[in-house]
């Protein structure tokens, strides 16, 4: 309630000033309004630039998005959320070094704990993309000691899987699932964790639940296809690998596009050969 009092008093004061200006002269009133609008546009230009950049990113125009987010970043004042957005775009465009600088500056400057945590999670990703995997994992573990939320559980759970200690990762991802079983990233992590441990039966219901959320990236479909193959469900596996072919890879991933293409080719070829044998047999 107290946070609303100051902006409310400011609005009232502006209204009073505008009324006084109009009483003095109509042109004075309109002139004051134009000045106030100009000031508002100037002080909010960072958000305007970021909005244009976000729309460009949504259209897949990465370079255009970067240009506008850089404008937002260099405009003062620049809200923390736009600085995080700029760092994220830098990583997506293949410049994690510059992203590290942007996010590092934000972590030192921000007074918001939530902003700091989000920036630290992104910074850990920037480390990982530079090959500094241990630094990324350690940073997330330090964040987790101080602050536990869905974002941290999801990011750290995935990093633990990528780091290779699958049993340690499983204990953590089970804890994360208890914390928020409805989160897509946490659910994805646990399904993947079980799959990589060779526990296909445990992974299967989690993958099924995950597919209901229609994951954006290719990896869940790729791993689900593998899990289905382990259970002898080849037709379903082919269906999932073909979906993976149509999806983009996330930018923190241990697999490549060629791996997906190769596996899809092999599965589809096997299915085609199977159909041909059946056809010839009938002939």
UniProtKB/TrEMBL annotation:
It holds the Pfam family TPR_4. This is Tetratricopeptide repeat protein. It comes from Paenibacillus agricola. It comes from the Bacteria. InterPro entries: TPR-4 (IPR011717), TPR-like_helical_dom_sf (IPR011990). The chain crosses the membrane at residues 7-24, 30-52. Keywords: Membrane, Transmembrane, Transmembrane helix.
